[in-house]
Amino acid sequence: MQLNLCELDMITPEQKELVKATVPILKENGVALTDYFYKRMLKNNPALKETFNMGHQRSGAQAKALAGAVLAYAENIDDPSVLAPVVELICYKHVSLNIQAPDYDIVGENLLHSISEVLSISMDDKLIAAWGAAYQQLADLFIATEKSLYEQQANTPGSWLGWRDFIVERKVKENSEITSFYLVPKDKKPLPVYKPGQYITVRVTVPELGIKQPRQYSLSDSPGGKYLRISVKREDSRAENQNPGYVSSTLHNVIGEGDTIEVSAPTGNFFLVNPDRNNVLISAGIGLTPMIAMLNQLLTDKSRPDGKPSLWDKLKSPFRHDEEHKKQITFIHAARSPDVHAMRREVSELADKHSNLHVYVAYEFVTDDDVPGEDYQMLGRLNLKEVPDQLLPQDADYYLCGPIPFMQHQNASLLELGIPQERIHSEAFGTGGVSL
Fold first, then answer.
1. pLDDT tens digits, one per residue of 21-71
2. Structural contact between residues 36 and 114, judged by C-beta atoms closer than 8 angstroms
3. What pLDDT score was predicted for residue 314?
4. Which pTM value belongs to this model?
5. How far from 40 is each of 106, 205, 246, 343, CA to CA, in Å?
6. Residue 274: pLDDT above 50?
7. What's the whole-number mean pLDDT along residues 93-110?
8. Which of 36, 38, 73, 104 is catalytic?
9. What is the mean pLDDT of the segment spanning 352-360?
């Protein structure tokens, strides 16, 4: 997707200076402002509680995320093009939540009133007008970009707009923390051929809240046409003042096989770029879910809606077992321990079948029964500088998924190993909020 933020010109030079003048205030009080904004907006528009993740509202993650976004926009108002990757990410998130143009009017009104009320300035103040112009030009960009994404969905066979009812056909427990959900469309109509690495939003009624709640989950299998699979980590409380996840707890404890949930169409800008290159997939924890989808796509004939190989696939089949024609795949995964390493058997079975797949596992903790070199290759946190060079080819595409600190560390390591930034692709999960 190409975004040209340089063409935004609705705001005058004077208004830009006023917006930039608020940067010190945003640095010091940005979270207080955005927290006030969310509370004000949700109080005045309670229906939006089914759009925003109330778990992130409860933890403050959403206010913090929006504060960071507002600050970044103010700091880069002279050259907002540097924000293009963030804008693109947010647009995909918005489409997955079925956010529409009128929603921006609600957000804009409450944002400006929040600035006025928190800073104790009149709505007639020039600063409010400046932020109004700044917000509107950004909102127009979001609306236009999301319109094009909705049009893509409307023109994709098997895809849909808004929410679609799916039945939980199967629940498969992967380990003590993660369960996979196999979802089939209630209307029994076809499914789209999505890009491995993309995600869906599921929406369920949370008994504790009495309202529906959305949550994005990466699809954990390549497209096969029969079902969508997500693998959900139970977000239990592990620390003081940390609450269980509303949606994950509902999926694990309340939703059963045969139940119906709402699902948005697959979307997202993190996906397998080129299956004809060497590919290195690096994940931590539940971050392995999009990697499993990519891995299955690279190793199986699941790209067709019916799950069958195409005529071209059949013509190529004599060459598939020729080792010289296979591209190398490295699957690197970091987990706390073998007990919480999901889909280990699935990956191991794939490695047994495909000699071009190399698996490398790092555990922080092991037992005496775990065999080094067989059950795992590294003890402790993953350090790519200690991974054998042949598993990290210079000409490969690299994919990272996991907690943000993990990805930042691995990205820095790859750069030090000589991998160019344009060959490194990453996806953050569980980062909190969707910012309108």
1. 999 999 999 999 999 999 999 999 999 999 998 888 888 888 888 888 899
2. yes
3. 44
4. 0.88
5. 11, 23, 22, 43
6. yes
7. 95
8. 104
9. 96
The single residue of 38, 146, 235, 376 carrying the catalytic annotation is 146
Residue 279's CB: how many other CB atoms inside 10 A? 23
The yes-or-no answer on residue 146 being catalytic is: yes
CB contact at 8 A, 338 and 376: yes
- In the chain, count of helices (H) and strands (E)? 12, 12
Whole-number Å distance between alpha carbons of 324 and 355 = 11
Where does 234-301 show beta strands of DSSP type E?
260-263, 279-284
Q: Is the pLDDT of residue 315 over 70?
A: no
Mean pLDDT of the residues in the chain: 89
The yes-or-no answer on residue 364 being catalytic is: no
Rounded to whole angstroms, how far apart are CA atoms 67 and 70?
5
**H or E element, residue 134:** helix 126-154
397-402 vs 199-206, strand pairing mode: unpaired
pLDDT score, position 353? 94
pLDDT score, position 323 = 44
Q: Which helix (H) or strand (E) holds 88?
A: helix 84-96
Specify the range with the lowest mean pLDDT, choosing from 41-50, 61-70, 95-104, 135-144: 61-70
Beta strands 178-185 and 228-233: pairing type? Answer: antiparallel
Nearest to 156 by CA among 265, 47, 1: 265
| Angle, helices 101-119/126-154, rounded to nearest 10 degrees | 160
What's the rounded Cα separation, in Å, for the pair 277 and 425? 14
Helix (H) or strand (E) run with residue 173 in it: strand 164-173
Query: Is pLDDT of 366 > 60?
Result: yes
- Say which residues have a Cβ less than 8 Å from residue 290's Cβ, sequence separation at least 6: 196, 197, 198, 199, 218, 219, 220, 270, 399, 401, 427
**Amino acid code (one letter) for 243:** N
Write phi, then psi, for 6 (nearest 5 degrees). -70, -20
Is residue 292 over pLDDT 80? yes
Which of 213, 229, 245 lies closest to 181 in space, CA to CA? 229
Two tokens, residue 432: 């909190």
Q: Which helix (H) or strand (E) holds 117?
A: helix 101-119
DSSP helix/strand/coil, 263: strand
Give the residue from 105, 124, 123, 107 showing the smallest Cα distance to 115. 123
The enclosing H or E element of 206 equals strand 199-206
